[in-house]
Amino acid sequence: MFVAGQTFSQQNLKENFTPLKSSGTLPDIFTQNIRNVIKDDISDLYKKKETDKSIKQTYLTETNYEIQKIVKSGNTLVNDEITAYLNKLADVILKDNQPLRKQLHIYTLKSPVVNAYSYDKGYIFIDIGLIAQAETEAQLAYILCHEITHYTKKHHINGYVKNKKIDNQNYTGKSNNDIVIEKCQYSKELESEADLEGFKLFEQTNYNFKQAEKAFDVLQYAHLPFELVEFKKSFFETEYYKIPDSYLLKEVSSIRNNSNEDDTKLTHPNTAKRKQAIIDLTANRNNAGKVNFILDKAQFEYVRDLSRFELCRLYLKNRDYPNALYAAYILSNKYPDNQYLAEIISKSLYGITLYGMGKISYDHDSHLENGFPEYKDVESYPQQLYYLMNKMPNNEWTMMSLNYVYRNHKKYPNNKVLNRYSDSLFKLVNQVSWGIIDFVRINKKEQPAVTETKKDSTVVNDGTSSKTDLIATIQKENNFKKYDTAYYKEMYVDLFMTDKEFSGKFPSTGVVDNDATSGFSDYSLKKGNSSKKKKPKKVGAFVSTEAKVNKVLLLEPFYLKIDESQKEEFSYLSSDEKQEKYAITVNDCAQRQKFELVTLDPDIINANDVDKMNDYAVINDWFAEKFDSDHSDGYPILNTNDIENIISKYNTQYVFKTGIVNYKSKSGRKRTYYYAFVYDLKLNEIIYKKQESFKGKDSRDLINAKVYQTIYEFKQSNK
Amino acid sequence: MIKHIIILLFITSSYMFAQSSGYMGKRLLLGYGFNTSPAIFGATSNNETLIGTGGSATTGSFVFNTIHEGFLEYAASSKWMVCFSARYYKTAYDNGKYLNYYDNNYSANYLKPSGFYNIRGLTYSLYFKYYGSRYVAPWGRYVMFGPTINTVKTSYDSKVMNFQANSNNYYYADTLMSNFGTKEQSFTGVNLMLGYGRSRIIANRVVIDYGFNLQLFSVFAGVFDVLLDGEDFSSQNPTNLNYIEKTYRKRVRGINRFNVFLKVGFLLF
Question: Which domains does chain B have, with CATH numbers?
Answer without folding.
Answer: 2-267 (2.40.160.20)
